């Protein structure tokens, strides 16, 4: 089965009655946890982005507290898992400001953790890659926000 284009889907959805549209949304949300999470974000959290960012930061904090400190291999796996989770929530938001804020927060937590980042090539590369992504997203923000975030980013280098 070939998937329809976004434009075709948009035209078809505009022709559907609201009650049928609700049924379609609920049916889509049933099949994948990500769809349900995205729908939850759009319905409940999209209006208050700052509260959403704070809740994601709290999740990152919780994950970093559970980090295995003795085994570098397990710590690296856990950090990758935290990063995947953060990027999933960044994707839900779709805002560059949220992306920059959460990635800076992740890098700050990684840097202040008691892990020896520079003794592990994998962790060093992961950290450097996030800094590159922050810079890339930072270029797309308003100048005032760029200045604020650039100061925070300079602390990470």
Name its key features.
157 residues, mainly alpha, 8 helices
Could you describe the 3D structure shown?
There is one protein chain. The protein has a domain of 109 residues. The chain contains eight helices and no strands. Helix 2 packs across helix 3, helix 4 runs parallel beside helix 6 and helix 6 runs antiparallel to helix 7. It is globular and about 55 Å long.
Task: Give a brief outline of the structure.
By secondary structure, the protein is an all-alpha fold.
Helix content: over 70%
Which percent band covers the strand fraction? under 5%
Task: State the separation between the terminal residues, measured CA to CA.
Answer: 49 Å
Average residue-wise pLDDT: 92
Q: What is the N-to-C succession of helices and strands?
A: HHHHHHHH
Radius of gyration: 19 Å
Q: Based on DSSP secondary structure assignment, what is the total number of beta strands?
A: 0
Report the uncertain regions: none
How many helices does DSSP assign? 8
Outline type? globular
Biggest sheet overview: none
Set down the secondary structure blueprint:
Layout: H1 6-15, H2 18-31, H3 33-45, H4 49-65, H5 72-93, H6 96-112, H7 121-138, H8 143-156
Helix pairs in contact: 2-3, 4-5, 4-6, 5-6, 6-7, 6-8
